[in-house]
Amino acid sequence: MNLAPAGLRKEGSGFDLPIALSILGASRQLPLDSLGIHAAIGELALDGRIRPVRGVLAAAEGARRAGFERLLCAEESASEAALAGVEPIPARHLAEVVAYLRGDIEPPRFEPSTNGSVGEPDVLDLADVRGQERARRALEVAAAGGHNLLFAGPPGTGKSMLARRLPGILPALSAEESLEVTRIYSAAGLLSPERPLVRQRPFRMPHQSASMAAIVGGGPGPRPGEATLAHHGVLFLDELPEFQRPALEALRQPLEEGVIAIARAEGRALFPARFQLVAAMNMCPCGGRGNPGAECVCSAQRLAAFREKLSRALVDRFDLVVAVPRPRAVELSGRAGESSAVVRARVTNAGHRIRAGPLARTEAASALLDRAVERLPLSGRGRVRVARVARTIAALADSTSVEEEHIAEALAYRSPRELAS
Amino acid sequence: MIRLRPRDALFPERLAAIFDPPPALYVRGCGDPELLAHRSVAVVGARSCSPYGSQVARMLGRELAAAGLVVVSGLARGIDGEAHRGALDAGGVTVAVLGCGIDRDYPASHAQLSRRIEEKGLVVSEYEPGVEPAPWRFPARNRIIAGLCEAVVVVEARERSGALITADFALDEGREVFAVPGEITSSLSFGVNALLKLGATPLTSSQDVLEALGIERPASAPATEVSADAKQVLELVSDAPAGADELTARSSLDVGAISVALTELEIAGLVAAAEGVYRAAKGR
Questions:
Q1: Residues in A touching B256 (Cβ below 8 Å)
Q2: Domains annotated on chain A, with CATH
């Protein structure tokens, strides 16, 4: 066997089937002309059954680019392979493949499943969230401008409930994006045969204990991490300060560049990771702050350490910071909020406006920003962020320029002094 | 750095008059050492204070400094730090009294605040440079804070707070003691409310201090003109501190307009925000 080109690293059990078929071909047990027009991928069990492997979509795309029209693969992989535009030949057993290639049996037929038309996973609707007007508004602004968003508030104020609804108000995935996400999930082995094409924006919520490798990818292979699985979707970090420092530091690169480079002795792996970051945290270690029904029992030292840890590494990565104090009954009984569909329409429209060209800032708006830097605790970097958010707010308002009121609203979402100092 | 002995002309008279004046006072900063003899008020309180406490401390620091008083405090986290910051906000002079050598930055997180204080004010201590902070030095430091001032204002204090020690020293030396009334259900108020019971003067505005010291209120700046929306929001916030959502529910404005109005009020210095709750920044 020669796995050319030798310089390219190959691994995985997906080579089982092609290696077996090559041996059968070389020993004249299979007609070479028939074998030569097929690509193949799949793991072989000891009894000859064919098992599905990860990454079939990418392999099928490679096969198509190499000029193959047919791909021999496990039954479970067929719908995934079909997405790449090749004709999948699903097979259960090596003997079945041999019989087919010899022309003894009809090619096993691939029945395309009713892709996506049955049981789209339920998307959580924003209409379920009562009250929390400001947090909802911030979520909308974040969605429209692709801003990273931090919620700070006591436990039980619906921070994660809101975050989970962000994918539902983002514009739908384009066909190209959908395929990109599917490729990642295929490589990670997370696709289900019934729903081979990912059409929903991903929502990933790793646990606080997640290691750096789990977040940005790594390990042997290396494997994509949560940040990559959140590509074109939302990465939600609940209890942000509880995450390990290295894991959070490692998010810097994808946040700035949209990719993750993992260096290994054998070479470098590049993973796409263009996600929107949403995080939630308490206002103090005990969770008492921001809660009218409780009193903070944190010592001054503990509180100072908590804020120190936050401010140095984290708070400056978020364009929008929203304090979410515990709502009182008066708001909970308020009217139900708008549905995700209504908000998504505004978000999509604002996106078009932002892409159409930069919005100019009026002189009055610039003057307000200058005054704010003077009067409010706002750093230079904070100023840039406010200007960016104000542009999104203007786009949401369908305005042709950034006005004073847009700057003023954006200032309300700046990181509060008690978190930043 | 200079060292003042009680027999030195620059040694503040008020401090020399207390029961056990320090054998020496080490002074650092660009301020004139003479300002230790200037009319001054201490603003002290809890380290882990509430947002309300930190806001009141800042307001008092600002207004007392604006009236020409030197604001003295202990550079601790919480109330002390906010009082210093308030005085600096007003462009006033403030003095920090340390419980360690004046070459130490304690707490370390206030190193920058300390530098700002030194630009016009002073950092003082009875301990020589190099002395480390230690728990038992802080009560002794409080006697200096009280000794330097004509009046002591306690903003927030738990039952056994160091701020109460400062108040005790002040009472012993016959200095005026003010306490800011707090919620009777909050442990951060137990200390101040106990002081009130003992006869401290309740403080409801910086004017109370100015009157007691016989100081003219500075000509107040003309009221800032604000928009109609902002006026409506300010009225609501003055009734009771509230979050943005509560204000949205109670006013005729939508959530975006509420944010616009709140920012306008914040920039005008009429409203302060902490932990998502907005409060009126000025008393009556």
A1: 137, 393, 405, 409
A2: 13-101 (3.30.230.10)
